[in-house]
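Side project, low priority. Logging it here so it doesn't get lost.
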Amino acid sequence: MENSTKTRILEQALVSFAENGYKGTNLRDLASGLGITKSALYRHYDSKEEIWNAVIDMMEEYYSMRFGSPEKMPAVPESCDELLALTMKMLHFTMHDRKVILTRRLLLAEQFRDERARKLTTLHFLTGTKQIFTEIFARMMEKGILKNDDPEMLAFAYTAPVSALVQLCDREPEREAEITLQIEAFARHFINTYKAKDDDND
């Protein structure tokens, strides 16, 4: 029961932080929205800052387990078709998972207030995904699926435009279908450009 209440607090806090910002999140309102008293909330967390850090911890684990991270790598694709499928699966999760969307929103809003939010914004919008694809591309080059090149530079070239388009979709969600098609077209073009000549899986 205690773990369930703590989870409910964190999930509601995620929504409040994303919608109202850290300063705009009131613990009395948070407790009221959960149907508990403020004193009951304080039995689980000592302060708003502790709730904030617990929310970030929760979402780091959530994202790593479902999207991947340099510490929890997804399976390396065995073909260019599998690379495209992995890319679109990761994209679908990023663009449609409500918790991830809320997390992006709160990170963007709080990155100038909170040092941890700033570092995580850089990680999730640039360096983390680049590290994942650096390892993926290096392994695919070793297997002869992709042309030999600098895997880190290729990963940067592959992930940065996609990240920019995801952020565009966050700002203009009515363009989601168009942006998804644009990302898929970009991924196909990139893969066709860098696939090894003897890879006949496409």
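Brief comment: The first helix runs from residue 2 to 20.
Revisit when time allows.
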